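Structure ticket #2291
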Amino acid sequence: MARFLLLPLLFLCSPTWADIAVTDDVGQTVRLAAPARRIISLAPHLTENLYAAGAGGRLVGVVDYSDWPEAAKKLPRVGSSDRADLEAILAQKPDLVLAWESGNARAHLAKLRALGIPVYVSQPKHLDDVAGEIERLGRLTGTEAVAKAAARDFRARQAGLKARYGGRPPVRTFYQVWNQPLLTVNGEHIIADVIKLCGGENVFGSLAQLAPAVAEEAVVVANPEVIVASGMAEARPDWLDAWKRWKQLTATSRDNLFFIPPDFLHRATIRILDGAERLCTQLETARGRRP
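Resolution: structure written out below.
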C-alpha cells in the first residue's frame, strides 16, 4: 500500500519535460532542459521556419530583412545576419539562439556559447533539409504537432512537383544570383535542388564553390536554354535583359529570360516551393518554345 501512496508524490516531483536534444546542420548537439521560450533568430529564413513550426510567438529578437510573415516585421532588431549586435542579443535574455552558418560570424556564436546560451546552427543544402529543420525547431520549442504537420505538407507538395516535372526532358539552365560580380550556384546549392526538381540541368553544377563567380563568356560557351535571374527585390532586374546582346545564346533567341523574386528561392523555407512552382512553369514554357 505504501508503494502506491508514493506514486502521486513521484509524479509531482518528476519534470514535465525531459531534456531536449537536437543535432543541428553542423553536427552539434543542442541540449535544452525545457522548450525554448525566448528565442533570437539571426537569419530571415530561420525566422520564417520558426513561425512555420508554430513557435513564432517565442521570438524576442530578429535580424534585418526578417519580414515574413507580417508579424516578424514588428519584432525587435538585433543587427543584421553578418553584423549581429551582441549587447542587444544579451539584453533579451534568450534561452536559444538560431544561427546561420553561411551568414553569421563564428566568433559571435562562440561568444554566445561561452556565455552558456544554446546555439542551433542552420545550413540547409537540400529541399529535404527544410522539412527536417522545421521538425527540429518544433522539438526545441515543444510545438512538435504543428511542426510535423507543416513538414508533412511540405514533403507532399515537393513530391507532387517531382512527380509532375522531374521526368520531363531536361532544360539546360543558368541561374543568375547577381550581375556584378556575375554569380551563380553550383550543384550542391539548395537552388540547384530546385532546378533538378523541375527537370532542369544546372550548367555550372560541377563548379567547386557553392556560389561561384563566372565570366559572361563562360555563360555564352555553356549556352543555356534558359536564364533565370533573382536580384534584390520583387521587381525584375534591368540587368537580366543585358543578355539580349548575346544573340547567339539559345536563351536569348527563344526569349527564355525569366525572373523569380529572391525571397522565393534564396530562403530555405516553405516558400521555396512557391519559387519551385514558378521555375517549373518557366522551364515548361521553354520546352514549349523548342523548334
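Closing remark: The beta strands are 20-23, 29-32, 39-41, 59-62, 96-100, 119-122, 171-176, 200-202, 226-229, 257-259.
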